[in-house]
Design a protein that fits this description.
Elements (H helix, E strand, L loop, with lengths): L3 E2 L8 E7 L12 E10 L4 E4 H4 L3 E4 L7 H7 L7 E6 L20 E11 L1 E2 L8 E7 L12 E10 L2 E11 L10 H7 L7 E6 L21 E11 L9 H20 L3 H17 L6 H24 L3 H14 L4 H13 L3 H14 L4 H45 L25 H5 L18
Antiparallel strand pairs: 1-2, 2-6, 3-4, 3-5, 3-7, 6-7, 8-9, 9-12, 10-11, 10-13, 12-13
Helix pairs in contact: 4-5, 4-6, 5-6, 6-7, 6-8, 7-8, 8-9, 9-10
Length: 461
């Protein structure tokens, strides 16, 4: 097969000639750990390096600039089992410096490369291989979808080797849950280029988790595979790039969308939109206009209150408490923020902190009967908590005391008893002449009769 220019600029920098066709359709994506054999030669045929001579395949992370530029470009086009020759111009190899002593300056190089295998690119946020991508068709360009981008995809989902869904779907990235798209697919799509097609291996934590999906016959904790093609997408405007009043309008729309999802019971989506607003405010400078700053504060306060409610309903007590604290930093006397933080503190088993929050609520609004009832509940919980702790500590001290007593008894058992044994009970060998005990000595074993044999040995003392 004739050599083909595969350099991005089509400047002849990387020419590829396939010697042996590979199998399948997949090629490795950036981030994959690839395993290859290679032989490198100068244009005159001089060999300067070979993994085959060492009988040791070479492994590297594709697209991480750990090898010469030509390799990152060329190896990304290879299928499993493929053998190809890459002709690499100096700008795509070792440039003017060369790599002394084997590679001279401005050298064009040839590499015969055999693709052995690769592991998928790890796209998981935790970097634990819970989302792996295996590229089938390379996309075009360099742009990838951002949060909120309108994406048009075709996907095929399979479990245990059987297809359970196949569909074309269009949605805004970040809102896939609304159209049945799992979290792992959305995370992966942020790395796709236009027209890209890839196979995804997704662990249960980024799929249907410990719940499963009865509609598809997927049990809890099931790992899935998806083949996803990004047919088209339109990037979303970054909200922090929108100036002043327009940014507030855009973020208010986010809030309304989040609230709509909240009312539908889609707490995950609602939380995403509220957090978008929080992030946008963190990344944006404060406005010099008093009116705009007031609007921004009101929006931030409202969003934090809504976030707290979402977290409470999702049993995320720490996050709920923190959202309320953020709201109180904006308005220290906000009744809702104090009440919801009190609720979070109860769930966090901190009734004494909750009590303070509810008492503050009553200072602001003495007619808040819900807060008054919560105060009664907090005092009861705190009393029960103290009683439990007292019992725990009492048992703990009793246990320690018992352990100390046992240790002391063990120590005493290890010491000789002066009233017994060789030092206390007179044995025959200790009596003068080794005589037998007298009747009196048998009745009183701790007393030794010194003149029991009538010899008169102490007569003159």
């Amino acid at each position: 097969m004739a050599a083909v220019d595969i350099s991005p600029k089509k400047d002849g920098g990387v020419l590829k000639e396939i010697i042996k066709e590979g199998i399948g359709e997949e090629t490795p994506a950036a981030g994959c750990k690839v395993k290859v054999h290679y032989t490198g030669t100068l244009m005159d045929g001089t060999k300067f390096d070979s993994s085959k001579d060492r009988n040791e395949p070479f492994e590297f992370d594709l697209g991480k600039k750990s090898v010469i530029k030509a390799w990152d470009i060329g190896v990304a086009t290879m299928k499993r089992g493929e053998v190809a020759i890459l002709t690499c111009a100096p700008d795509y190899a070792y440039r003017a410096a060369g790599s002394p002593p084997t590679i001279p300056p401005n050298a064009t190089l040839k590499f015969e490369i055999e693709m052995i295998d690769w592991k998928g690119a790890d796209l998981s946020p935790e970097q634990d291989n819970s989302i792996e991508k295996f590229q089938i068709v390379t996309g075009s360009g360099y742009i990838t979808p951002n949060e909120g981008a309108l994406v048009d995809v075709h996907l095929v989902g399979s479990y245990d080797g059987k297809v359970f869904e196949e569909k074309d779907v269009q949605f805004n990235l970040g809102e896939g849950e609304d159209v049945g798209i799992i979290d792992g697919v959305e995370i992966a799509l942020r790395t796709f280029k236009m027209g890209e097609k890839s196979r995804l291996k997704i662990k249960s934590k980024h799929a249907y988790k410990n719940i499963g999906e009865p509609k598809f016959g997927i049990p809890p904790n099931a790992d899935l595979e998806y083949t996803v093609e990004l047919k088209n997408f339109e990037k979303a405007s970054e909200s922090w790039m929108i100036p002043g009043p327009d940014q507030i309008k855009q973020l208010t729309l986010f809030k309304e969308k989040g609230t709509a999802y909240f009312k539908e019971g889609k707490l995950g989506l609602a939380t995403k939109f509220y957090n978008k607003i929080i992030t946008a405010f963190k990344d944006s400078p404060s406005s010099d206009e008093e009116e705009e700053e007031t609007e921004a504060k009101d929006l931030r306060l409202s969003v934090n209150l809504n976030l707290a409610l979402c977290y409470l309903k999702s049993n995320k007590s720490i996050e709920a408490r923190d959202a309320c604290t953020e709201a109180l930093a904006i308005n220290p006397n906000n009744e809702k923020a104090l009440f919801r933080r009190g609720q979070a503190n109860i769930l966090l088993a901190a009734p004494e902190l909750a009590l303070k929050d509810f008492e503050e609520v009553l200072k602001i609004n003495p007619k808040n009967t819900a807060a008054a009832n919560q105060i009664i509940a907090c005092k009861k919980l705190h009393k029960e908590q103290l009683a439990r702790e007292k019992k725990i500590y009492a048992n703990m001290f009793d246990k320690f005391a018992l352990q100390d007593k046992q240790k002391e008894e063990e120590k005493l058992r290890g010491q000789p008893d002066v009233m017994r044994g060789v030092l206390g009970e007179w044995g025959q060998e200790e009596r003068p002449g080794g005589r037998d005990a007298t009747a009196f000595e048998k009745e009183n074993p701790n007393i030794l009769m010194l003149n029991a044999n009538g010899t008169g040995e102490f007569k003159n003392m």
